[in-house]
Protein backbone atom coordinates (compact mmCIF):
# COMPACT_ATOMS: atom_id res chain seq x y z
CA UNK A 1 0.00 0.00 0.00
CA UNK A 2 1.29 3.51 -0.78
CA UNK A 3 2.39 5.81 2.07
CA UNK A 4 -0.53 8.23 1.54
CA UNK A 5 -3.28 5.60 1.76
CA UNK A 6 -1.74 3.96 4.81
CA UNK A 7 -1.47 7.26 6.66
CA UNK A 8 -5.19 7.94 6.07
CA UNK A 9 -6.24 4.60 7.55
CA UNK A 10 -3.89 4.74 10.54
CA UNK A 11 -5.27 8.16 11.44
CA UNK A 12 -8.60 6.44 12.25
CA UNK A 13 -7.02 4.33 15.00
CA UNK A 14 -6.65 5.71 18.53
CA UNK A 15 -3.00 6.51 19.39
CA UNK A 16 -1.04 3.92 21.40
CA UNK A 17 -1.46 4.37 25.12
CA UNK A 18 2.13 5.49 25.60
CA UNK A 19 2.97 5.00 29.23
CA UNK A 20 5.52 3.25 31.28
CA UNK A 21 5.33 0.06 29.20
CA UNK A 22 4.96 1.05 25.54
CA UNK A 23 8.25 2.61 24.44
CA UNK A 24 7.47 2.67 20.72
CA UNK A 25 3.91 2.31 19.43
CA UNK A 26 1.58 3.35 16.65
CA UNK A 27 2.26 7.08 16.76
CA UNK A 28 5.72 7.07 15.18
CA UNK A 29 6.50 5.62 11.77
CA UNK A 30 8.91 3.09 13.26
CA UNK A 31 9.67 -0.39 12.00
CA UNK A 32 8.65 -2.32 15.10
CA UNK A 33 6.88 -1.83 18.42
CA UNK A 34 8.81 -1.90 21.70
CA UNK A 35 7.21 -3.04 24.97
CA UNK A 36 9.12 -2.74 28.22
CA UNK A 37 9.06 -5.70 30.60
CA UNK A 38 11.41 -4.32 33.25
CA UNK A 39 14.27 -1.88 33.48
CA UNK A 40 16.67 -4.32 31.84
CA UNK A 41 14.50 -5.83 29.14
CA UNK A 42 12.12 -4.68 26.44
CA UNK A 43 10.45 -6.82 23.77
CA UNK A 44 10.49 -5.80 20.11
CA UNK A 45 7.52 -6.97 17.98
CA UNK A 46 7.13 -6.89 14.23
CA UNK A 47 5.55 -8.73 11.32
CA UNK A 48 5.90 -8.50 7.58
CA UNK A 49 4.94 -10.69 4.59
CA UNK A 50 4.70 -10.28 0.83
CA UNK A 51 4.28 -11.94 -2.56
CA UNK A 52 7.25 -13.65 -4.30
CA UNK A 53 9.84 -11.26 -5.67
CA UNK A 54 12.00 -13.99 -7.28
CA UNK A 55 11.08 -17.35 -8.85
CA UNK A 56 13.29 -19.60 -6.74
CA UNK A 57 11.25 -20.62 -3.63
CA UNK A 58 14.26 -21.08 -1.33
CA UNK A 59 15.59 -17.62 -2.23
CA UNK A 60 12.14 -16.12 -1.74
CA UNK A 61 11.99 -17.68 1.73
CA UNK A 62 15.40 -16.31 2.68
CA UNK A 63 14.53 -12.83 1.40
CA UNK A 64 11.13 -12.67 3.13
CA UNK A 65 12.67 -13.79 6.43
CA UNK A 66 15.59 -11.33 6.18
CA UNK A 67 13.07 -8.57 5.46
CA UNK A 68 10.96 -9.43 8.55
CA UNK A 69 13.98 -9.82 10.84
CA UNK A 70 15.32 -6.47 9.64
CA UNK A 71 12.65 -4.58 11.60
CA UNK A 72 14.10 -5.97 14.84
CA UNK A 73 17.63 -4.98 13.77
CA UNK A 74 16.43 -1.49 12.83
CA UNK A 75 15.38 -0.96 16.47
CA UNK A 76 18.79 -2.14 17.72
CA UNK A 77 17.30 -5.42 18.95
CA UNK A 78 18.28 -9.09 18.76
CA UNK A 79 15.74 -11.59 17.32
CA UNK A 80 14.57 -14.27 19.78
CA UNK A 81 11.74 -16.16 18.09
CA UNK A 82 9.75 -16.18 14.86
CA UNK A 83 6.39 -17.50 13.58
CA UNK A 84 5.67 -18.25 9.91
CA UNK A 85 2.89 -16.38 8.10
CA UNK A 86 1.87 -18.26 4.96
CA UNK A 87 -0.76 -17.75 2.24
CA UNK A 88 -0.56 -20.50 -0.38
CA UNK A 89 -2.53 -22.03 -3.27
CA UNK A 90 -2.43 -25.81 -2.72
CA UNK A 91 -2.35 -26.29 -6.51
CA UNK A 92 1.32 -25.20 -6.53
CA UNK A 93 2.30 -28.30 -4.58
CA UNK A 94 3.68 -28.83 -1.11
CA UNK A 95 7.30 -29.24 -2.28
CA UNK A 96 7.37 -25.61 -3.29
CA UNK A 97 5.97 -24.46 0.05
CA UNK A 98 8.50 -26.65 1.87
CA UNK A 99 11.32 -24.91 -0.02
CA UNK A 100 10.00 -21.45 0.90
CA UNK A 101 9.84 -22.42 4.57
CA UNK A 102 13.32 -24.00 4.44
CA UNK A 103 14.70 -20.74 3.05
CA UNK A 104 12.98 -18.79 5.82
CA UNK A 105 14.26 -21.16 8.50
CA UNK A 106 17.81 -20.86 7.20
CA UNK A 107 17.74 -17.13 7.89
CA UNK A 108 15.92 -17.46 11.23
CA UNK A 109 18.75 -19.76 12.34
CA UNK A 110 21.40 -17.44 10.90
CA UNK A 111 19.89 -14.72 13.09
CA UNK A 112 20.29 -16.95 16.15
CA UNK A 113 16.50 -17.10 16.65
CA UNK A 114 14.12 -20.08 16.88
CA UNK A 115 11.01 -20.91 14.85
CA UNK A 116 8.08 -21.47 17.20
CA UNK A 117 5.12 -22.08 14.86
CA UNK A 118 3.00 -20.32 12.29
CA UNK A 119 -0.30 -20.04 10.47
CA UNK A 120 -1.33 -20.95 6.91
CA UNK A 121 -4.25 -19.68 4.81
CA UNK A 122 -5.21 -20.92 1.35
CA UNK A 123 -4.99 -18.04 -1.12
CA UNK A 124 -4.74 -17.49 -4.88
CA UNK A 125 -1.25 -15.97 -4.72
CA UNK A 126 1.54 -17.18 -2.42
CA UNK A 127 2.66 -14.86 0.36
CA UNK A 128 5.25 -15.46 3.04
CA UNK A 129 6.83 -13.66 5.93
CA UNK A 130 7.39 -13.76 9.68
CA UNK A 131 6.13 -12.36 12.92
CA UNK A 132 9.27 -11.83 14.99
CA UNK A 133 9.91 -11.11 18.65
CA UNK A 134 13.23 -9.68 19.73
CA UNK A 135 14.79 -8.17 22.80
CA UNK A 136 16.54 -4.89 23.44
CA UNK A 137 17.75 -2.95 26.47
CA UNK A 138 15.15 -0.19 27.07
CA UNK A 139 17.86 2.46 27.07
CA UNK A 140 19.46 1.23 23.86
CA UNK A 141 16.42 1.28 21.57
CA UNK A 142 17.21 2.90 18.22
CA UNK A 143 14.25 4.65 16.61
CA UNK A 144 13.82 6.58 13.38
CA UNK A 145 13.91 9.87 15.32
CA UNK A 146 16.92 11.40 17.01
CA UNK A 147 19.16 12.51 14.13
CA UNK A 148 20.95 15.83 14.65
CA UNK A 149 22.17 18.42 12.18
CA UNK A 150 25.74 17.53 11.25
CA UNK A 151 25.21 13.76 11.53
CA UNK A 152 26.29 11.72 8.53
CA UNK A 153 23.73 9.53 6.74
CA UNK A 154 24.73 5.93 6.00
CA UNK A 155 22.94 3.26 3.97
CA UNK A 156 24.12 -0.31 4.51
CA UNK A 157 22.92 -2.09 1.31
CA UNK A 158 22.82 -1.09 -2.38
CA UNK A 159 19.55 0.16 -3.96
CA UNK A 160 17.65 -1.05 -7.01
CA UNK A 161 15.55 -4.08 -6.01
CA UNK A 162 12.28 -2.48 -7.23
CA UNK A 163 13.66 -1.86 -10.72
CA UNK A 164 15.30 -5.30 -10.88
CA UNK A 165 12.19 -7.18 -9.72
CA UNK A 166 10.16 -5.36 -12.40
CA UNK A 167 12.74 -6.27 -15.07
CA UNK A 168 12.72 -9.89 -13.90
CA UNK A 169 8.92 -9.99 -14.18
CA UNK A 170 9.13 -8.64 -17.74
CA UNK A 171 11.85 -11.16 -18.77
CA UNK A 172 14.29 -8.33 -19.42
CA UNK A 173 16.66 -9.90 -16.93
CA UNK A 174 17.45 -13.47 -15.92
CA UNK A 175 17.44 -14.55 -12.32
CA UNK A 176 21.18 -15.32 -12.47
CA UNK A 177 21.83 -11.75 -13.63
CA UNK A 178 20.11 -10.65 -10.43
CA UNK A 179 22.23 -12.91 -8.24
CA UNK A 180 24.05 -10.09 -6.44
CA UNK A 181 20.74 -8.37 -5.64
CA UNK A 182 19.19 -11.67 -4.47
CA UNK A 183 22.10 -12.33 -2.12
CA UNK A 184 21.89 -8.70 -0.97
CA UNK A 185 18.17 -8.99 -0.16
CA UNK A 186 18.71 -12.34 1.60
CA UNK A 187 21.47 -10.90 3.79
CA UNK A 188 20.61 -10.06 7.40
CA UNK A 189 21.07 -6.54 8.73
CA UNK A 190 22.55 -8.04 11.92
CA UNK A 191 26.09 -6.79 11.49
CA UNK A 192 25.00 -3.30 10.45
CA UNK A 193 22.68 -3.11 13.46
CA UNK A 194 25.38 -4.16 15.91
CA UNK A 195 27.85 -1.72 14.36
CA UNK A 196 25.25 1.06 14.62
CA UNK A 197 24.55 0.33 18.31
CA UNK A 198 28.26 0.17 19.16
CA UNK A 199 28.99 3.37 17.25
CA UNK A 200 26.14 5.12 19.09
CA UNK A 201 23.91 5.90 16.09
CA UNK A 202 21.44 8.72 16.83
CA UNK A 203 18.67 7.21 14.69
CA UNK A 204 18.00 4.17 12.54
CA UNK A 205 15.36 2.74 10.21
CA UNK A 206 15.41 0.28 7.30
CA UNK A 207 14.66 1.06 3.66
CA UNK A 208 11.71 -0.88 2.27
CA UNK A 209 8.57 -0.08 0.29
CA UNK A 210 8.58 3.73 0.58
CA UNK A 211 12.05 3.95 -0.96
CA UNK A 212 15.11 5.85 0.20
CA UNK A 213 13.33 9.21 0.17
CA UNK A 214 10.27 7.94 2.05
CA UNK A 215 12.16 6.28 4.88
CA UNK A 216 14.57 9.18 5.13
CA UNK A 217 11.64 11.59 5.55
CA UNK A 218 10.50 9.43 8.49
CA UNK A 219 13.80 10.36 10.17
CA UNK A 220 13.11 14.10 9.93
CA UNK A 221 11.11 14.96 12.99
CA UNK A 222 10.00 18.34 11.75
CA UNK A 223 11.90 20.52 14.24
CA UNK A 224 14.17 22.21 11.74
CA UNK A 225 16.02 19.11 10.56
CA UNK A 226 16.64 18.39 6.89
CA UNK A 227 18.94 16.11 4.96
CA UNK A 228 21.09 16.26 1.84
CA UNK A 229 21.88 13.14 -0.17
CA UNK A 230 24.26 12.78 -3.10
CA UNK A 231 23.12 10.40 -5.81
CA UNK A 232 26.71 9.78 -6.96
CA UNK A 233 27.44 8.19 -3.57
CA UNK A 234 24.63 5.62 -3.79
CA UNK A 235 25.58 1.99 -4.27
CA UNK A 236 23.37 0.31 -6.88
CA UNK A 237 22.96 -3.40 -7.60
CA UNK A 238 24.30 -4.44 -11.06
CA UNK A 239 21.96 -3.70 -14.03
CA UNK A 240 19.79 -1.26 -12.02
CA UNK A 241 20.61 1.83 -14.07
CA UNK A 242 20.45 -0.03 -17.39
CA UNK A 243 17.01 -1.48 -16.56
CA UNK A 244 15.70 1.86 -15.25
CA UNK A 245 16.75 3.46 -18.55
CA UNK A 246 14.64 0.88 -20.37
CA UNK A 247 11.53 1.86 -18.39
CA UNK A 248 11.52 -0.91 -15.79
CA UNK A 249 10.07 1.38 -13.11
CA UNK A 250 7.59 -0.23 -10.71
CA UNK A 251 4.24 1.42 -9.97
CA UNK A 252 5.37 1.89 -6.35
CA UNK A 253 8.00 4.41 -7.48
CA UNK A 254 5.29 6.60 -8.94
CA UNK A 255 3.11 6.31 -5.83
CA UNK A 256 6.06 7.19 -3.60
CA UNK A 257 7.08 10.17 -5.72
CA UNK A 258 3.55 11.53 -5.89
CA UNK A 259 3.09 11.42 -2.13
CA UNK A 260 6.61 12.47 -1.09
CA UNK A 261 7.60 15.06 -3.70
CA UNK A 262 6.34 18.10 -1.72
CA UNK A 263 9.08 17.35 0.82
CA UNK A 264 11.80 16.21 -1.59
CA UNK A 265 13.77 18.85 -3.47
CA UNK A 266 15.52 17.34 -6.47
CA UNK A 267 18.40 19.07 -8.24
CA UNK A 268 17.45 19.91 -11.83
CA UNK A 269 20.88 18.60 -12.85
CA UNK A 270 19.79 15.02 -12.12
CA UNK A 271 18.56 12.70 -14.87
CA UNK A 272 15.08 11.17 -14.72
CA UNK A 273 16.61 7.81 -13.86
CA UNK A 274 18.50 9.29 -10.89
CA UNK A 275 15.30 10.89 -9.63
CA UNK A 276 13.41 7.61 -9.87
CA UNK A 277 16.06 5.65 -7.94
CA UNK A 278 15.48 7.78 -4.86
CA UNK A 279 11.84 6.61 -4.80
CA UNK A 280 12.48 2.97 -5.85
CA UNK A 281 10.62 0.67 -3.41
CA UNK A 282 13.07 -1.76 -1.81
CA UNK A 283 12.63 -5.29 -0.57
CA UNK A 284 14.82 -6.17 2.40
CA UNK A 285 16.84 -2.98 2.00
CA UNK A 286 19.68 -1.79 4.18
CA UNK A 287 19.64 0.18 7.42
CA UNK A 288 19.53 3.95 7.12
CA UNK A 289 21.58 5.48 9.95
CA UNK A 290 22.22 8.90 11.44
CA UNK A 291 25.69 8.79 12.93
CA UNK A 292 27.80 11.48 14.61
CA UNK A 293 30.76 11.93 12.27
CA UNK A 294 33.32 11.09 14.95
CA UNK A 295 31.69 7.64 15.38
CA UNK A 296 32.32 6.75 11.75
CA UNK A 297 35.61 5.07 12.58
CA UNK A 298 33.99 2.72 15.10
CA UNK A 299 31.22 1.88 12.62
CA UNK A 300 33.70 1.17 9.84
CA UNK A 301 35.76 -1.10 12.07
CA UNK A 302 32.69 -3.04 13.22
CA UNK A 303 31.51 -3.55 9.63
CA UNK A 304 34.85 -5.20 8.83
CA UNK A 305 34.91 -6.82 5.39
CA UNK A 306 31.29 -5.88 4.63
CA UNK A 307 31.81 -3.08 2.10
CA UNK A 308 28.23 -2.75 0.85
CA UNK A 309 27.52 0.30 3.04
CA UNK A 310 28.05 3.89 1.91
CA UNK A 311 28.04 7.37 3.36
CA UNK A 312 25.35 8.96 1.21
CA UNK A 313 24.66 12.33 2.77
CA UNK A 314 24.39 14.54 5.81
CA UNK A 315 21.68 15.92 8.11
CA UNK A 316 21.40 19.71 7.99
CA UNK A 317 19.43 22.48 9.58
CA UNK A 318 16.44 23.12 7.36
CA UNK A 319 13.31 24.92 8.51
CA UNK A 320 11.06 23.16 6.00
CA UNK A 321 12.27 19.64 6.89
CA UNK A 322 13.20 18.82 3.31
CA UNK A 323 15.23 16.04 1.77
CA UNK A 324 17.52 17.61 -0.81
CA UNK A 325 18.76 15.30 -3.56
CA UNK A 326 22.02 16.42 -5.19
CA UNK A 327 24.05 14.92 -8.07
CA UNK B 1 2.46 -0.75 -40.83
CA UNK B 2 0.69 0.71 -37.81
CA UNK B 3 0.26 -1.49 -34.80
CA UNK B 4 -2.29 -0.90 -32.06
CA UNK B 5 -1.67 -2.17 -28.54
CA UNK B 6 -4.23 -1.90 -25.77
CA UNK B 7 -2.37 -2.13 -22.47
CA UNK B 8 -5.10 -0.57 -20.33
CA UNK B 9 -5.53 -2.32 -17.01
CA UNK B 10 -2.06 -3.88 -17.22
CA UNK B 11 0.50 -3.31 -14.48
CA UNK B 12 4.19 -2.64 -15.14
CA UNK B 13 6.21 -4.09 -16.74
CA UNK B 14 3.49 -5.59 -19.03
CA UNK B 15 2.92 -2.40 -21.11
CA UNK B 16 6.66 -2.17 -21.87
CA UNK B 17 6.81 -5.86 -22.73
CA UNK B 18 3.90 -5.42 -25.19
CA UNK B 19 5.64 -2.41 -26.75
CA UNK B 20 8.85 -4.37 -27.11
CA UNK B 21 7.00 -7.22 -28.84
CA UNK B 22 5.34 -4.84 -31.29
CA UNK B 23 8.66 -3.18 -32.13
CA UNK B 24 10.33 -6.51 -32.62
CA UNK B 25 7.53 -7.66 -34.90
CA UNK B 26 8.66 -4.86 -37.20
CA UNK B 27 5.96 -2.21 -36.63
CA UNK B 28 7.09 1.24 -37.80
CA UNK B 29 4.37 3.07 -35.89
CA UNK B 30 2.76 1.88 -32.71
CA UNK B 31 -0.19 3.33 -30.89
CA UNK B 32 -0.34 2.08 -27.34
CA UNK B 33 -3.08 2.78 -24.81
CA UNK B 34 -2.28 2.80 -21.10
CA UNK B 35 -4.28 4.00 -18.13
CA UNK B 36 -1.71 5.02 -15.52
CA UNK B 37 1.17 7.52 -15.41
CA UNK B 38 3.81 4.90 -14.47
CA UNK B 39 3.03 2.88 -17.60
CA UNK B 40 3.03 6.09 -19.67
CA UNK B 41 6.46 7.15 -18.42
CA UNK B 42 7.92 3.65 -18.72
CA UNK B 43 6.70 3.14 -22.30
CA UNK B 44 8.07 6.55 -23.36
CA UNK B 45 11.40 5.83 -21.70
CA UNK B 46 11.62 2.40 -23.30
CA UNK B 47 10.82 3.91 -26.72
CA UNK B 48 13.58 6.46 -26.35
CA UNK B 49 16.07 3.77 -25.19
CA UNK B 50 15.29 1.98 -28.48
CA UNK B 51 15.91 5.11 -30.56
CA UNK B 52 12.21 5.78 -31.20
CA UNK B 53 10.27 8.99 -30.72
CA UNK B 54 7.00 9.13 -28.83
CA UNK B 55 4.15 11.55 -28.35
CA UNK B 56 1.52 11.33 -25.61
CA UNK B 57 -2.14 12.34 -25.89
CA UNK B 58 -4.39 12.24 -22.85
CA UNK B 59 -8.09 11.58 -23.26
CA UNK B 60 -10.30 11.09 -20.18
CA UNK B 61 -7.70 9.40 -18.04
CA UNK B 62 -6.37 7.23 -20.87
CA UNK B 63 -2.96 7.93 -22.36
CA UNK B 64 -2.51 7.29 -26.06
CA UNK B 65 1.18 7.05 -26.91
CA UNK B 66 2.19 7.31 -30.54
CA UNK B 67 5.59 5.73 -31.11
CA UNK B 68 7.49 6.23 -34.33
CA UNK B 69 10.54 4.17 -35.13
CA UNK B 70 13.47 6.57 -35.36
CA UNK B 71 16.20 6.64 -37.98
CA UNK B 72 18.70 4.99 -35.67
CA UNK B 73 16.29 2.26 -34.64
CA UNK B 74 15.24 1.62 -38.22
CA UNK B 75 18.85 1.01 -39.07
CA UNK B 76 19.54 -1.26 -36.17
CA UNK B 77 16.38 -3.31 -36.20
CA UNK B 78 15.31 -3.61 -39.82
CA UNK B 79 18.19 -3.16 -42.14
CA UNK B 80 17.60 -4.37 -45.68
CA UNK B 81 17.99 -8.11 -45.96
CA UNK B 82 20.89 -7.74 -48.39
CA UNK B 83 23.13 -6.15 -45.77
CA UNK B 84 25.23 -8.61 -43.81
CA UNK B 85 25.42 -8.46 -40.04
CA UNK B 86 28.22 -10.74 -38.99
CA UNK B 87 28.46 -11.65 -35.35
CA UNK B 88 31.67 -13.17 -34.02
CA UNK B 89 31.08 -15.26 -30.92
CA UNK B 90 34.05 -15.87 -28.63
CA UNK B 91 33.06 -18.50 -26.06
CA UNK B 92 36.64 -19.25 -24.97
CA UNK B 93 39.95 -17.47 -24.53
CA UNK B 94 41.69 -20.10 -26.69
CA UNK B 95 41.13 -21.04 -30.33
CA UNK B 96 40.41 -24.70 -30.94
CA UNK B 97 40.66 -27.65 -28.56
CA UNK B 98 43.77 -29.57 -27.67
CA UNK B 99 46.79 -27.50 -26.77
CA UNK B 100 45.80 -24.43 -24.76
CA UNK B 101 49.16 -22.77 -25.25
CA UNK B 102 48.78 -23.03 -29.01
CA UNK B 103 45.12 -22.02 -28.65
CA UNK B 104 46.13 -18.74 -27.01
CA UNK B 105 48.58 -17.89 -29.79
CA UNK B 106 45.93 -18.68 -32.40
CA UNK B 107 43.33 -16.56 -30.61
CA UNK B 108 45.65 -13.55 -30.57
CA UNK B 109 46.39 -13.99 -34.27
CA UNK B 110 42.68 -14.41 -35.01
CA UNK B 111 41.74 -11.15 -33.24
CA UNK B 112 44.58 -9.20 -34.87
CA UNK B 113 43.58 -10.47 -38.31
CA UNK B 114 39.94 -9.66 -37.58
CA UNK B 115 40.88 -6.09 -36.65
CA UNK B 116 42.84 -5.66 -39.89
CA UNK B 117 40.11 -7.16 -42.07
CA UNK B 118 38.46 -4.83 -44.63
CA UNK B 119 34.92 -5.87 -43.68
CA UNK B 120 34.76 -5.89 -39.89
CA UNK B 121 31.92 -7.73 -38.14
CA UNK B 122 28.80 -5.98 -36.83
CA UNK B 123 29.27 -7.17 -33.27
CA UNK B 124 31.58 -9.37 -31.21
CA UNK B 125 30.03 -11.30 -28.34
CA UNK B 126 32.20 -12.63 -25.50
CA UNK B 127 30.95 -15.17 -23.01
CA UNK B 128 32.19 -17.95 -20.72
CA UNK B 129 36.06 -17.86 -20.74
CA UNK B 130 35.83 -15.56 -23.77
CA UNK B 131 35.29 -12.58 -21.42
CA UNK B 132 38.85 -13.04 -20.13
CA UNK B 133 40.06 -11.64 -23.48
CA UNK B 134 38.63 -8.25 -22.57
CA UNK B 135 40.04 -7.68 -19.07
CA UNK B 136 43.03 -5.55 -18.11
CA UNK B 137 46.32 -7.02 -19.26
CA UNK B 138 44.72 -9.61 -21.57
CA UNK B 139 46.27 -10.17 -24.98
CA UNK B 140 42.97 -9.56 -26.77
CA UNK B 141 42.44 -6.03 -25.44
CA UNK B 142 44.42 -4.23 -28.15
CA UNK B 143 42.72 -5.95 -31.07
CA UNK B 144 39.28 -5.61 -29.47
CA UNK B 145 39.91 -1.89 -28.82
CA UNK B 146 40.88 -1.45 -32.49
CA UNK B 147 37.67 -3.18 -33.53
CA UNK B 148 35.67 -0.95 -31.19
CA UNK B 149 37.27 2.15 -32.74
CA UNK B 150 36.13 0.90 -36.13
CA UNK B 151 32.54 0.94 -34.83
CA UNK B 152 32.26 -2.76 -33.96
CA UNK B 153 30.18 -3.28 -30.83
CA UNK B 154 31.82 -5.57 -28.27
CA UNK B 155 29.34 -7.22 -25.89
CA UNK B 156 30.89 -8.76 -22.77
CA UNK B 157 28.69 -11.12 -20.74
CA UNK B 158 28.15 -9.62 -17.27
CA UNK B 159 27.22 -12.92 -15.60
CA UNK B 160 30.51 -14.42 -16.82
CA UNK B 161 32.52 -11.44 -15.54
CA UNK B 162 30.85 -11.87 -12.17
CA UNK B 163 31.60 -15.57 -12.19
CA UNK B 164 35.31 -14.97 -12.83
CA UNK B 165 35.23 -11.97 -10.42
CA UNK B 166 36.59 -9.73 -13.21
CA UNK B 167 33.81 -7.14 -13.44
CA UNK B 168 36.00 -4.35 -12.13
CA UNK B 169 38.76 -5.19 -14.62
CA UNK B 170 36.92 -4.91 -17.94
CA UNK B 171 39.16 -2.95 -20.31
CA UNK B 172 37.11 -2.89 -23.52
CA UNK B 173 33.51 -3.35 -24.69
CA UNK B 174 30.11 -2.99 -23.03
CA UNK B 175 29.11 -5.20 -20.12
CA UNK B 176 25.99 -6.87 -21.42
CA UNK B 177 23.15 -9.19 -20.44
CA UNK B 178 21.62 -12.33 -21.89
CA UNK B 179 18.77 -10.37 -23.47
CA UNK B 180 21.16 -8.27 -25.59
CA UNK B 181 23.35 -11.25 -26.38
CA UNK B 182 20.35 -13.29 -27.51
CA UNK B 183 18.94 -10.42 -29.58
CA UNK B 184 22.33 -9.97 -31.23
CA UNK B 185 22.63 -13.62 -32.12
CA UNK B 186 19.05 -13.83 -33.42
CA UNK B 187 19.41 -10.75 -35.63
CA UNK B 188 22.76 -11.82 -37.14
CA UNK B 189 22.72 -12.66 -40.84
CA UNK B 190 25.71 -14.92 -40.23
CA UNK B 191 27.74 -15.81 -37.22
CA UNK B 192 31.20 -17.20 -36.55
CA UNK B 193 31.69 -19.09 -33.30
CA UNK B 194 35.15 -19.71 -31.91
Output the keywords.
heterodimer, A: 327 residues, alpha+beta, Phosphoribosyl-aminoimidazole Synthetase, Chain A, domain 2, 6-stranded mixed beta sheet, 11 helices, 33% helix, globular, B: alpha/beta, Translation Initiation Factor IF3, Hypothetical Protein Ychn, Chain: A, 2 domains, 5-stranded parallel beta sheet, 4-stranded mixed beta sheet
Tell me about this structure.
The complex is a heterodimer of chains A (327) and B (194). Chain A has eleven helices and 13 strands. Chain A has 327 residues and is of the alpha+beta class. Chain A has two domains: 138 residues, PurM-like, N-terminal domain (60s Ribosomal Protein L30, Chain: A); 175 residues, Alpha-Beta Complex (Phosphoribosyl-aminoimidazole Synthetase, Chain A, domain 2), CATH 3.90.650. In chain A, a hairpin with a 5-residue loop joins strand 2 and strand 3. The mean pLDDT of chain A is 93. Chain B folds into two domains: 76 residues, TusA-like domain (Translation Initiation Factor IF3, 2-Layer Sandwich), CATH 3.30.110.40; 108 residues, DsrEFH-like (Hypothetical Protein Ychn, Chain: A). In chain B, 37% of the residues lie in helices and 24% in strands. Chain B has a five-stranded parallel sheet with strand order 8-7-6-5-9. A four-stranded mixed sheet of chain B has the order 1-2-4-3, covered by helices on one side. In chain B, helix 1 packs parallel to helix 2 and helix 4 packs parallel to helix 5. Chain B is elongated, with a radius of gyration of 20 Å. The two termini of chain B are 39 Å apart. The interface between A and B is medium-sized, with 25 and 23 residues.
